[in-house]
Structure formats: C-alpha cells, structure tokens
C-alpha cells in the first residue's frame, strides 16, 4: 500500500510536492478553497504534465477525513502555519509526523514545542511559482535538507529524504537543521526586504543604489549569528563568510523575483515577522545593534498598512 501524504497549503511548494509525490504516494492537497482536479506541472526543461490531484478544502476534510497520513507537510506561509494546522488538528492522530517547509525561524520552534508527535523541518532551494489555480512551474532544481531541531528523529528524516529523492526532489537528512535554517534566514533577511521595498529583482542589489544597504544588513546579521552560535557558512570565517554567501545567492538568483516582492505586488502580508522578527528578538536578547533590521521591518509594516 502506498504511503499517504497530506499537504497543507496549495501554494507553489505545496503543489510541487503534490505533483512530485503523486506517482509514488497517495496525496491529499489541503487548502481553504477548492482547486481544479486536473493540475499542470511545467518542468525545469519546459515539459508540461497534467495529472489529477486529490484536493480537499479544510471544511471537506473535517466532514469526510481520508486515511490518516504518514506525513503532514505544512507548506503555508510562516505566519499562517500555526492557525492552518490548528484548523485540521481534529482530523488526524496527534502522533502524525509534521514536516514544516516555512521560511524564517518563527513557526518551527513554536510548532516543535506544541505538537505531540515528531516535527521535521525542511529547507529547500527548489524553485517554483504558480500560474493560476491549475498550474505550477518547477523553475529550478535544488536540494532539500531535512531534520528536527533537537536531532531526535534521524530515522524518520532519512525515510522522508529517501522518499523525496525517489520523487525527483533531491533531499538529504541532516543533524544540523537549526544551523541551516538560521543560515537561510540570514540570506533571506539580506535580500527579501530590500528587493520588496525597492521593487527590484535580486540581481539589482549589486548596483550602487542598493549594495550599501545589503552591507549594512549583513553586518548586523553576522553579529547576531555569532551570538546565536550559528557557524559561518561554507567553513568560512566571521563576517566575510556571510558577505560571500549573500553575494553568491544574489548572483545565482539574479533574475528571481523574491517571494516577499511578489507579496508586496499582490498586496498580501509579507513574511517579515518570520524573517526579520527572530533576528530582531535575538539582537535585543544579546544586546546587539539592530537599527537597520528594525528600519526594514518598520518600512515593510508601513507598506503592508497601505494595502
């Protein structure tokens, strides 16, 4: 019998997961509203594949819950993860393993502490974006790392990593997922708020108009990472290693329109609380400066208030 995966949040990563897992697993895609039964995936090579995906609204799930899942993947935005999960908690055993796919470092510690069953965290460089209610584009192949914050569920992480790899999403189980989540948070904080506020693609941060603000953000972030015990990336040393990583990502994603910019353009709330919030809270706790990060958060709050 095929393992069952529920995917809560039919956004880009949620639908990419559903398409990828559907040949080898029983999939239920969960959202607030109904989606067309036939869904199209466009591969990185430009091929298109239309497949039927089992999609339920959370209201339908409550009235006729299917077989309990082997894994529940939570792929909503970070600020919605806890409320979305609370909305379906009565439909499955509380021992069900969760997989959290959120950006930042807000939902992961909260849900890990609150959920009775195992909680895995995933950080991925897979690229995907939606093309309406019935389509998702797999824009670029990446790598997914999976683990749990207290390194207690290594076998479960390994099982899921093997499943995802079999499904075509290369994945590795790791014992240092907290380090990796904070490292990704550092990069997101240096790129996403700036491009969202300036209305530019990632590569434009290299220009004179924006590079100085990138440097100012990275300086604050590097000090926070050191205080949190997060090792510099790629076996580097200190602040310079963080600059190297950020500029590498800016270069490799030069044509990308960051998710936070997409949110601003669509007049949706951003993930500033999940990305900037943990850094500001950490800086306060460690007595570090965070004027630049606070300024970005204030500016984004003002933009959101205008929606």
From TrEMBL:
<dbReference type="GO" id="GO:0015940">
    <property type="term" value="P:pantothenate biosynthetic process"/>
</dbReference>
<keyword id="KW-0521">NADP</keyword>
<feature type="domain" description="Ketopantoate reductase C-terminal">
    <location>
        <begin position="176"/>
        <end position="294"/>
    </location>
</feature>
<dbReference type="GO" id="GO:0005737">
    <property type="term" value="C:cytoplasm"/>
</dbReference>
<dbReference type="InterPro" id="IPR003710">
    <property type="entry name" value="ApbA"/>
</dbReference>
<dbReference type="InterPro" id="IPR008927">
    <property type="entry name" value="6-PGluconate_DH-like_C_sf"/>
</dbReference>
<comment type="function">
    <text>Catalyzes the NADPH-dependent reduction of ketopantoate into pantoic acid.</text>
</comment>
<keyword id="KW-0566">Pantothenate biosynthesis</keyword>
<comment type="similarity">
    <text>Belongs to the ketopantoate reductase family.</text>
</comment>
<dbReference type="InterPro" id="IPR050838">
    <property type="entry name" value="Ketopantoate_reductase"/>
</dbReference>
<feature type="domain" description="Ketopantoate reductase N-terminal">
    <location>
        <begin position="7"/>
        <end position="149"/>
    </location>
</feature>
<dbReference type="InterPro" id="IPR013332">
    <property type="entry name" value="KPR_N"/>
</dbReference>
<dbReference type="Pfam" id="PF08546">
    <property type="entry name" value="ApbA_C"/>
</dbReference>
<comment type="pathway">
    <text>Cofactor biosynthesis; (R)-pantothenate biosynthesis; (R)-pantoate from 3-methyl-2-oxobutanoate: step 2/2.</text>
</comment>
<dbReference type="Pfam" id="PF02558">
    <property type="entry name" value="ApbA"/>
</dbReference>
<dbReference type="GO" id="GO:0050661">
    <property type="term" value="F:NADP binding"/>
</dbReference>
<protein>
    <recommendedName>
        <fullName>2-dehydropantoate 2-reductase</fullName>
        <ecNumber>1.1.1.169</ecNumber>
    </recommendedName>
</protein>
<dbReference type="GO" id="GO:0008677">
    <property type="term" value="F:2-dehydropantoate 2-reductase activity"/>
</dbReference>
<dbReference type="InterPro" id="IPR013752">
    <property type="entry name" value="KPA_reductase"/>
</dbReference>
<keyword id="KW-0560">Oxidoreductase</keyword>
<dbReference type="InterPro" id="IPR036291">
    <property type="entry name" value="NAD(P)-bd_dom_sf"/>
</dbReference>
<dbReference type="InterPro" id="IPR013328">
    <property type="entry name" value="6PGD_dom2"/>
</dbReference>
């Amino acid at each position: 019998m095929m393992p069952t995966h529920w995917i809560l949040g039919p956004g880009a990563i949620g639908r990419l997961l559903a398409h990828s897992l559907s040949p080898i697993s029983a999939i239920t895609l969960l959202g607030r509203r109904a989606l067309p039964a036939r869904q199209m995936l466009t591969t990185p090579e430009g091929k298109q594949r239309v497949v039927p995906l089992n999609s339920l609204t959370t209201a339908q799930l409550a009235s006729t819950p299917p077989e309990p899942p082997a894994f529940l993947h939570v792929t909503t935005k970070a600020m919605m993860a806890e409320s979305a999960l609370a909305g379906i908690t009565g439909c499955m055993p509380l021992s069900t393993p969760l997989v959290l796919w959120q950006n930042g470092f807000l939902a992961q510690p909260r849900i890990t502490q609150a959920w009775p069953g195992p909680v895995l965290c995933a950080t991925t460089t897979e690229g995907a974006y939606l093309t309406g209610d019935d389509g998702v584009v797999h824009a670029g192949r990446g790598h997914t790392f999976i683990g749990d914050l207290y390194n207690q569920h290594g076998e479960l992480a390994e099982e899921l990593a093997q499943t995802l790899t079999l499904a075509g999403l290369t994945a590795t189980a790791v014992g240092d997922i907290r380090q990796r989540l904070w490292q990704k948070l550092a990069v997101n904080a240096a790129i996403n708020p700036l491009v969202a506020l300036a209305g530019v693609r990632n590569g434009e941060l290299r220009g004179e108009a924006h590079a100085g603000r990138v440097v100012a953000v990275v300086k604050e972030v590097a000090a926070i990472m050191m205080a949190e015990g997060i090792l510099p990336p790629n076996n580097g040393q200190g602040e310079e290693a963080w600059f190297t990583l950020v500029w590498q990502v800016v270069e490799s994603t030069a044509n990308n329109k960051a998710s936070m910019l997409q949110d601003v353009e669509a007049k949706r709330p951003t993930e500033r609380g999940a990305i900037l919030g943990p850094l500001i809270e950490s800086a306060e706790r460690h007595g570090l400066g965070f004027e630049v990060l606070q300024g970005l958060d204030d500016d984004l709050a003002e933009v959101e208030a205008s929606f």
